[in-house]
Amino acid sequence: MRKAFSDTLLQMGEQNPRLAFVTGDLGFQVFDEFHARFGPRYINAGVAEAQMINTAAGLAAEGFHAVAYSIASFATARPFEQIRYCVAYPNLPVTIVGAGRGLTYANAGVSHHALDDVALMTAIPNMTVVIPGDPGEIEALFPQVTALPGPSYFTVGRFGEPRYEAEEPAVLGRARLLRQGEEIAIVTMGEMAGEVLAACKLLAADGITPVVYQMHTIKPLDTGTLDALARRVGTILVAEEHLPMGGLWSAMTNWSATLDRPAHLVRLGPPDAFALGNLTRDGFRHRMGFDAPAIAAACRKLCK
Amino acid sequence: MMNTPSPFQLQQKARELRATCIQLAHDGREGHLNGALSSVDLVAALYAGWLRISPDDPTDEGRDRFIFSKGHACTSLYAVLADRGFITMDMLRQYARDQTPLPSHPCIHALPLLDCSSGSLGHGLGVAAGRSYGLRLKESPARVAVLLGDGECNEGSTWEAAMFAAANQLDNLLAIVDYNRIQSVGRTDPLNGFASYEDKFRAFGWAVQTIDGHDYGQILGALEAFPLAAGKPTAIIARTTAGRGVSFMEDQVLWHYRVPSDDDLARALAELDASPIHLELPVEAAR
């Protein structure tokens, strides 16, 4: 995904001479070509996330679309007030890019975990929040967020994530149908889509074919698609790599509460706790019960 | 461009501007007079000619940018904006009232001619540096000035910004520190380890000059010398007095927050021997 991002960024830099990139001293060698090609439109603010965001805010106030890049936990929590006050309040066109959200950097420790980034960013008015799930969604959605007149939060995984097939293209603000199915639905966010699709493979032998939606745009939430989905299936399983507060689950329960007949929602994801133990990402997903086998098992139970 | 008034003319006008700040604080029931009265001369000097900006087209692309970062002290900004014709006297009379364009911390949505909202401290220098960088990318000759409080320099983000501005050689950036030595609940120097702002900015790679922030000759002279060095951002450390101009307010922590009573107002205006610029009636009758 990192490669898809740097390639797409390069294209956007080519197309838009008013696109500038600010890094918080991260992305070793990833943006060398952008730097070589666009010179001063590549800016390293140093290990100074507050200034990374305020540089982006100042550039945006001067008519640039600024892209601010750091590891997801440092890009969101550390400069939260700069994002809220200097970017979102004046509604400036800044895209904050969080690399390695969720448990991407699992065994780097809690400092590098971003299990609350969606909660933080969706809490801010004017903010659009986009969590792509594969390189294809990076390529499709990054040009769309950088065309927005206001701020956005956009995440990028690591290297080498597989691309997945989908029933429809990735369109900003629209839940993306990955698999058509019946009886039960799984709604997921970001790279958890890969885990969900792996679960679908496991379920094929049982004759269970869940409808799968990837909610890459978590704000604004595509409630129209969810309304239609709730009329079609009995249960919606929500699979997220985010804390229970403020992520996809929160967004879904907020939506469901507005229905005359609330949807039956079931959550799989990490608990409200710091992820201790220095496990790998797969290890955490297994221990916390939201890996592919756990998702498949939950579907089997719900379909009995 | 306007003709720059003389230091003497500015000194005379400053008494009216101070009277305006105090009247606004009294009528709006909002304090923060310490920082307003300490910064009046700096803001007035900037708008007296240094800032290349016209009330006829205050958001012109080629204008100089100004960020009033110590937002709580904004009565001085509003008074100067009204005096220079950027906002109306009627707007000034609505300071801190319901649905006002002039809230007690400046808001770009309420007053779009501003270059930045302010109220949360420690952001102005960082955004100003970003704007300076953007202007250079656009090959614009416009400059960026930012007024900081000394208390605001407690914020770590101010120093991230100072590092960034020097690292990127932003010599189109001017930071003025209103060094009035008082902040919200105490004095600035003990909280700062008695370190010199001039030394600190210089150590960060800035060109720095310290002046008397109430002496218009010195303020205009320092502005005239901008940029102090090619390839470096410029800082002016303006030594000022909190509550300047009113004997019972000067250098008192109390007047960071305190709202002047009727009696305080009358005594202050009498001492200043000046009327607020936005009152149509003589002061006594208006009250």
Please name the defining characteristics of this protein.
heterodimer; A: 304 residues; alpha/beta; Rossmann fold; 2 domains; 7-stranded mixed sheet; 5-stranded mixed sheet; 12 helices; 38% helix; 18% strand; globular; B: 287 residues; 5-stranded parallel sheet; 5 strands; 10% strand
List the helices and strands and how they pair.
The complex is a heterodimer of chains A (304) and B (287).
Chain A: H1 2-15, E1 19-23, H2 32-38, E2 42-44, H3 49-61, E3 65-71, H4 72-76, H5 80-88, E4 94-99, H6 117-122, E5 128-130, H7 135-145, E6 152-156, E7 176-179, E8 184-188, H8 192-204, E9 211-214, E10 217-219, H9 223-232, E11 235-239, H10 248-256, E12 264-268, H11 281-287, H12 292-303
Helix pairs in contact in A: 1-7, 3-5, 8-12
Chain B: H1 7-28, H2 33-50, E1 65-68, H3 75-83, H4 89-93, H5 124-137, E2 144-149, H6 156-167, E3 173-179, H7 188-191, H8 197-203, E4 207-212, H9 216-224, E5 234-239, H10 262-272, H11 283-286
Parallel strand pairs in B: 1-2, 2-3, 3-5, 4-5
Helix pairs in contact in B: 1-2, 1-3, 1-10, 2-3, 2-9, 5-6
